[in-house]
């Protein structure tokens, strides 16, 4: 078992290597791959029947573009504390609402907690409909369903906060450009890291088999 210090160094090196490779992917390729991924997502049974879906709004570069994905009830992340790496997911109510969101860190569009003077539905609150699916961004995934993010732990903490409120864990679906999918075991994992259930690439949908004894609520 590697030490935490060693693990975060390994992750840092891996992030650097993948980011350098992603920087060379032409925008046209990101667009074409993203369209194919959006098409493949529609074939996931849980996506078809989902109530609430959380989806990130993509940055211009280096990740799967989420513009072509259409969902009915959409929740979008907003960073609420940089010091503590916390984010919430707020509901988006219409196409115009989505279009008019202001840009935050790294040019990522984020919802204001208020919409039209009223509080938006917050996925972490009990009275809000269940999130059935979370579509996650990453720097990379591997074929054993590990995820490497930007190193702040926003999603790990969000999923922990969500499930700690006694709610069923949403299906975790990682969206991956070809250049972001690494071989099995390539990404080191800590106790805090959540594996994803599904990885969608332009070429395939990888589905993780549940480990024996794994609870559906964890
Ligand atoms: N499109 C998209 N949305 C997303 C994510 C993502 O990866 N992609 N996130 C996935 O987690 C969360 C935001 N992730 C973030 C990660 C780091 C920093 C941050 O504090 N950056 C530092 C600079 C760090 C650096 O460049 O070295 C800063 O702005 O001061 C902010 C947001 C939520 N929304
Ligand atoms: N639930 C949690 N509670 C406390 N600390 C956490 C939790 N989840 C992650 N962390 C810590 O957050 C830091 C960043 O984690 P990690 O390097 O795995 O981020 P990441 O998954 O790559 O990034 P992100 O989720 O932002 O895309 C690590 O120090 C990790 O120990």
TrEMBL record:
EC number: 6.3.3.2
CC per GO annotation: mitochondrion
GO molecular function: 5-formyltetrahydrofolate cyclo-ligase activity; ATP binding; metal ion binding
Organism for this UniProt entry: Ephemerocybe angulata
Coiled-coil ranges per UniProt: none
Pfam families for the chain: 5-FTHF_cyc-lig (PF01812)
Family: Belongs to the 5-formyltetrahydrofolate cyclo-ligase family.
Domain of life: Eukaryota
GO biological process: folic acid-containing compound biosynthetic process; tetrahydrofolate interconversion
Annotated substrate binding sites: 57, 63
Cofactor(s) it depends on: Mg(2+)
Name the UniProt record assigns to this protein: 5-formyltetrahydrofolate cyclo-ligase
Catalysed reaction equations from the record: (6S)-5-formyl-5,6,7,8-tetrahydrofolate + ATP = (6R)-5,10-methenyltetrahydrofolate + ADP + phosphate
Signal peptide start and end residues: none
Ligand binding (ATP): 11-15, 147-155
UniProt keyword annotations, A-Z: ATP-binding, Magnesium, Metal-binding, Nucleotide-binding
């Amino acid at each position: 078992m590697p030490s935490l210090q060693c693990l975060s160094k390994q992750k840092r090196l891996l992030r650097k290597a993948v980011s350098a490779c992603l920087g060379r992917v032409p925008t046209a390729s990101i667009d074409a791959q993203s369209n194919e991924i959006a098409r493949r997502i529609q074939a996931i049974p849980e996506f078809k029947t989902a109530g609430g879906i959380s989806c990130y709004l993509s940055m211009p570069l280096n990740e799967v573009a989420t513009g072509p994905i259409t969902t009915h009830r959409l929740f979008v992340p907003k960073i609420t504390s940089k010091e503590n790496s916390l984010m919430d997911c707020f509901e988006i109510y219409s196409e115009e609402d989505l279009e008019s969101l202001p840009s935050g860190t790294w040019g990522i569009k984020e919802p204001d907690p208020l919409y039209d003077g009223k509080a938006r539905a917050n996925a972490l609150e009990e009275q809000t409909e269940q999130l059935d699916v979370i579509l996650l961004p990453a720097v990379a995934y591997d074929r054993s369903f590990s995820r490497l993010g930007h190193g702040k732990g926003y999603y790990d903490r969000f999923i922990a906060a969500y499930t700690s409120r006694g709610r069923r864990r949403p299906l975790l679906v990682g969206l991956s450009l070809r250049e972001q999918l690494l071989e099995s075991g390539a990404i080191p994992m800590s106790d805090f890291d959540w594996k994803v259930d599904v990885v969608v690439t332009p070429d395939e949908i990888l589905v993780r088999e549940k480990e024996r004894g794994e609870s559906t609520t964890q």
